[in-house]
Amino acid sequence: MAEEIIRNTAKGEVTMRLWRGDETGGEFAEYVMPAQEGEVVLDVIHRVQATEAPDLACRWNCKAGKCGSCSAEINGRPALMCMTRMDTLPPGEAVTVAPMRTFPILRDLVTDVSYNYEVAKRIPPFHPREKTDDEEEAGGYRMQQIDVERSQEFRKCIECYLCQDVCHVIRDHEENKTAFAGPRFFARSAELEMHPLDVNDRRELLQKEQGLGKCNITKCCTEVCPEHIKITDNAIIPLKERVVDASYDPVAWLGRKILKRRKSTPAEAEADAPSTGPAAVQPEGGVHGIPAPEHADDALVGAWATDAGPGGDAPAEDAPAE
Amino acid sequence: MVEYETHDFDVVIIGAGGAGLRAAIEAQSKGLRTALVCKSLLGKAHTVMAEGGVAAALGNVSDEDNWKVHFRDTMRGGKMLNNWRMAQLHAQESPDRVRELEDWGALFDRTKDGLILQRDFGGHRFARLAHVGDRTGLELIRTLQQRAVAAGIEVFMELKVLRLLHDAEGTVSGLVGYWRPSGEFVTFTAKAVVMATGGIGKSWMYTSNSWESTGDGHAMSLWAGADLIDMECVQFHPTGMVWPLSVRGLLVTEGVRGDGGVLRNSEGNRFMFDYIPPMFKDETADSEDEADRWYDDHSAGRRPPELLPRDEVARSINSEVKAGRGSPHGGVFLDIATRRTPEDIRRRLPSMYHQFKELAGVDITSEAMEVGPTCHYAMGGVRVDADSAATTVAGLFAAGEVAGGMHGSNRLGGNSLSDLLVFGRRAGIGAAEFASGRSGSPTVDKGQIDAAIAAAIAPFERESGENPYDIHQDLQETMQSLVGIIRTGSELEEALGKIEVLEERANQVSVSGGLRYNPGWNLTTDLPSMLTVSRCTAMGALNRKESRGGHTRNDYPKPEAEMGTVNFVERIPDPGAAAGGVGGTPSVRSITVTPEPIPVMPDDLKALVEEAS
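^ inputs. structure came back:
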């Protein structure tokens, strides 16, 4: 029995002001479309493509808020086009959609987000501790729900890069991008730092190469996160505290001086970061050369080895041979 | 002639969802030069939308569970049309593949003992789905993506592949495609190619699939001479959103039912009790009391009928709606609000809570959801060797949704994510071994490349012509109305006629603008794939004169024993000579269908399947 196709009925009109252009410039073009019940911004853009502007560039995938592809600035506010309902926007006014401003424009509403993929490569990857005998027998690591939930919050990230888009450190400051990872990747580092199994240490990299200190916690990233991840409160501020503790905690400093015990040096963590090409294939199980801490609960473990004293800010040096 | 860039690798993987990523990780780990090519940005593939979990008999929740029970459930769920060897390998290996994800950083929800928590799902006898709330696919793709990045695998993003290339002997030797951002053409030579392109749902109007699911891998493999099997077996997931129309088809996870949600009709009845098929009668509760006891204690009752395999539930919903007992917008009601606390619902099903709240204005902690079937998954696909994932064409491998056989005529929920891991890895090994054993550098025919490029840019050269979006919409309407959840011979014939007309129209398509990030043009290059897989689906459906799993014929409403012993194999007998299709591809008219016997299951495995519940 042939299935009946249900059709939407139009109720009035909507005016879309969509940015058209490329890296050399462009302008907003207006399209008037019939309004339909329950639509999101992306639906209307699809109808513009199907009728008036087949070459209108717009990146999208799932149209369900799960893939993070359709980020744009809607009436000046960074948001996912697929999760912004038309009936939440001021009625009777044109809806303005512009590409994310922080990334170079490829065409129309599509930007070049490769910066984010480059930053991702520079984060030392997950490196788990060894399994205990009990875990080997049980067939997997044991972790309690309450302990995995902290990192799970950050793993909700759909990589829409809206947090990167609003971050004033790089918005309109192209020059900062080389030394700044941005909120998405602070959340990624926080996820790894708080991962119950991970033993890599990313704190010096965060401070010295990824610009953690440049964030002055205005919380713009948290506000735009479509997954409602508390990036500032739960990722960035705790990371800042960890980095400060590592640098300035006199007990930790003394411990380093006396015990020379550490998680991994920045150089090692960096060596852990991926390189390109098959030559960099890691042996099974991930990463070589990182000694696991002898006592995971030792308060001194995790301090990174520099000779900077309390309050000092000296550049990192290699720890003396152990 | 148009210029193009060239690349050379040992192994090229097409598609960066779960299967492609897992294959790439494996091939790279064997020391081969590996490239991963994907149509979208890395991490956006359709795997990201999987919700409920990954099925693996870890036995963390039910210690009675083991691979044999998982194998049995999979075969019965697939109505015995499955490739038994694939189902066996899948059941045996998925626990290791899930644990391996944890070694790579995945954080699954935990049991009280600190192990990976598992949830109940349709058709699985025991709580078997490892999960992270209702965003398991995101966890899986992110873990694999981060692992691939750490391994230094080269990724070519937003690159659409047009055609496979072969050498003089017919061995697959590379591919030709274009960068979507620039519109510039690019070719790869490779000693082995892995197809991991996912599904075909975008040929239907109401689908859970993203725009990428245009059946590129199914079509390209067929054009290259590979066999497809069981293309008529398309899964309509029972619970898609039905309102508002703009989100019709969007998935509502089976986890809602696994966690206690029930289906009701407009009269408030839990109608699934009226639709329990004989095959599952012994293991399904026959009263609401018994079903409800099961949620708290699996030994206190049998499983609720809401957790029957997906094909059964989808057909039942369809029947209720047709009988006039549907919801206001043509679905039925899925109710978890009266059965679980708001806190539990928000904790266990956070994405569903937000999806309904933000897109439909429905609070699922206090109201029922309206749901109905949505085109979700292709069980059919490229015929592969179970152990190596090799297709019937030398040099070409396939894994994940694009491969056929594993799921028979109906896939159980959670078995797709485990399929990706098990056979993604096996395809990576298969391709790596083939590439290592291949002597000399692969050669490709420049004529093939030039022809593919010329066909791709032809729509720019037509002054006026068909709008590609119109053709796509007409195809979706045809497939939705004539090759949907319930089929009949005359309508399938009608659909085939319409697809031939659409093919002719697609050859007159014209586009404006330039090559750079031009969605209208990009769509013209997806149309040949969509038309091809639509034709294959309709032809398979016309030939399979029975109802089995995801394939239901009004005119042949029962399973037929002799049909249960064959795959319908579709192929193009002489691809080189079969011109006339869209954009220089072989015409859909050149596709043949033949019934071929399915591999015979060994007796010891047969005994497992026949074992009483």
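DSSP finds 17 helices and 18 strands in chain B. The first strand of chain B starts at residue 4 and ends at 14.
thumbs up if we can close this ticket
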